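Quick review question:
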């Protein structure tokens, strides 16, 4: 039972007022936002993405594929620590443009360091790498969400 405007609202299926299908399945998300299903259609943030409501077997299959295909945080951190400013960790995580930019800034910084011009560039890249230490989990989660979305639309 739920109360609205002082009146008791009865729900025949036992759910409280205002709960949706995604509230009962918190693992069904895309980019951190819950997927809500209603009427046999799957919605992402209120937008119909044209998928029928997935059954448990499909969800298990998708989660297994996500676990197998997702990038490894251990590999990403090892690349970041051992190849510090080369940006290889960004390339591994699928961010090619920023990884190449990081490599170019790192190389240019070391080339111009003897004449004291490259030190600010090296400092910038080092700051970027320290910030990336905290951004890697989010990059991996975005990769997993993208795999889930791709597999969900393939299994129509």
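Suggested answer, residue by residue:
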């Amino acid at each position: 039972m739920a109360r609205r405007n002082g009146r008791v609202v009865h729900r025949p299926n036992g759910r409280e007022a205002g709960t949706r299908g995604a509230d009962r399945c918190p693992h069904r998300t895309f980019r951190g936002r819950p997927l809500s299903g209603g009427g046999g259609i799957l919605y992402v943030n209120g937008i119909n993405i044209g998928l029928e409501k997935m059954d448990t077997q499909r969800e298990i299959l998708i989660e297994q594929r996500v676990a197998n295909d997702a990038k490894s945080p251990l590999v990403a951190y090892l690349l970041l620590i051992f190849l510090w400013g080369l940006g290889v960790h960004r390339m591994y995580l699928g961010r090619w443009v920023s990884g190449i930019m990081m490599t170019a800034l790192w190389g240019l910084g070391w080339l111009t360091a003897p004449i004291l011009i490259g030190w600010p560039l090296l400092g910038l890249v080092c700051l970027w790498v320290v910030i990336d230490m905290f951004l890697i989990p989010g990059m991996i989660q975005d990769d997993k969400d993208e795999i889930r979305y791709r597999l969900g639309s393939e299994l129509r």
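Why it works: The helical segments are 21-24, 56-69, 73-82, 88-92, 96-112, 119-154. The chain has six helices and six strands.
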